[in-house]
Amino acid sequence: MIVLAWLACGPNEPPVPTWEADIGPLVEARCAHCHVDEDTGAPYLELDEEPYDNLVDQPTVENPTMPYVTPGDRYLSYMYHKVNATQTLSGGSGTSMPFGSPLDESDVELIGAWIDGGALP
Ligand code: HEC
Question: What distance lies between CA 120 and its chain's CA centroid?
Fold first, then answer.
């Protein structure tokens, strides 16, 4: 709650994260090598080419109740639930992401803040 209040106001408010500056490099480094358009273990979601377009407002395989990313609401974004290990609670399935090597809490929060801020390109 303190973090949320701090994010919501104040002169030292951090800039809203963007895909280009923040999330794209993170996904490239931590997700794209598995999520490729080949016969790998992660066939549902392609993140090596046009990852932004494949995530924002796109339906998922595991969770029929929400897309990967709903701009403005991390809790209606399955991508957030997968990195936050709340995928089952959200109505989905499988393991949390990245498979076998969870993100730091600060990177999970970065993804949440990016989505809440409108999933800016
Ligand atoms: C080591 C390989 C690997 C890495 C790294 C990885 N994933 Fe996955 N991902 C998988 C596999 C395998 C599945 C399918 C099984 C499951 O969901 O547990 C999957 C499934 C998913 C799904 C569900 C797809 C659907 O349509 O329902 C999402 C969302 C997802 N991953 C996001 C990510 C994100 C975001 C990252 C990076 C932060 C990431 N993954 C990193 C292997 C990986």
Answer: 12
**31 CB within 6 A, ligand 1:** yes
At 5, is the pLDDT very low, low, confident or very high (cuts 50, 70, 90)? low
| Per-residue exposure over 70-94, b if at least 16 CB sit within 10 Å of its own CB, e if not | bbeebebbbbbbbbbeebeebebee
Q: Which residues on neighbouring strands pair with residue 33, listed in sequence order?
A: none
Decide: 45 in ligand 1 pocket, CB within 6 A: yes
Q: Which residue among 62, 82, 83, 90 is best mutated to probe the pocket of ligand 1, counting the most ligand atoms within 8 A of its Cβ?
A: 82
Please tell me the pTM assigned to this model: 0.91
Residue 62: is its pLDDT beyond 70? yes
Q: Where are the domains of the chain?
A: 18-116
Q: Rounded to the nearest whole angstrom, what is the distance from the C-alpha of residue 12 to the centroid of ligand 1?
A: 34
The encoded tokens of residue 25 equal 């490099």
Judge residue 54's burial from the number of C-beta atoms within 10 Å of its C-beta, 0-12 exposed, 13-18 middle, 19 or more buried: middle
